[in-house]
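Narrative progress, year one. The postdoctoral researcher (J.K.) led the effort to move from monomer predictions toward full complexes, under supervision of the PI. The following entry was the first complex the group processed end to end, covering 252 residues in total.
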Amino acid sequence: MRALLLIAHGSRKAYANDEVRRLAERVEALEGNDFGLVVTAFLEFGEPDILRGVDRCVDFGAAEIVVVPYFLAAGNHVVRDLPRELECAGARHPRVRIGIAAHVGGADALAGLVLQCAQEEPSRTR
Amino acid sequence: MRALLLIAHGSRKAYANDEVRRLAERVEALEGNDFGLVVTAFLEFGEPDILRGVDRCVDFGAAEIVVVPYFLAAGNHVVRDLPRELECAGARHPRVRIGIAAHVGGADALAGLVLQCAQEEPSRTR
């Protein structure tokens, strides 16, 4: 079974982390989703952390985990911290394949999404 | 003329801000883009700042500006700081309508984009 692990930075504000968890639920419910499981994990300020997020995927029977970094910029978190954490997590589960997908901010479809946001009726400020 | 103003947090790292500027260029080039202008501005750590970004839209003849907050979470930056900055900017241009669209993290299409990231071939870490 293949699991999708959505990793966000995480916030001290619970509602911001809940927003990510709800997004993961929406991903799981999408038609065309061929992942057996969608799990959320947080680099900082959220539960589960990355080690536990990977454990959770494995506990549910994942033989392969595809990580989607929920970050807009390919900064240190994406380039350095996240692979390092995943390396540690992977060492605990040597038979499980872990792949890292493009971060959300690097997705081709993002331009269309921005335009769509703009074309929907905005709330006026003046 | 209607301008799209893409507002990012901004980073001390120039390449991260350039990533946002390139995204704005891609938005501008999209088929279906009916905005006369797409401008990038930064809340912190980037040029132009929000005041100057709004000025730039007006200088190019915008009668209406639609702001897309390039943020994943509806935290204080989106809910408090950004409207406040836009209020100040708008006071300098009382005839210009400024609207704030949904932040990128709140877009319905984001779930599909995450799934798409995951379904493309990831780089393996083990």
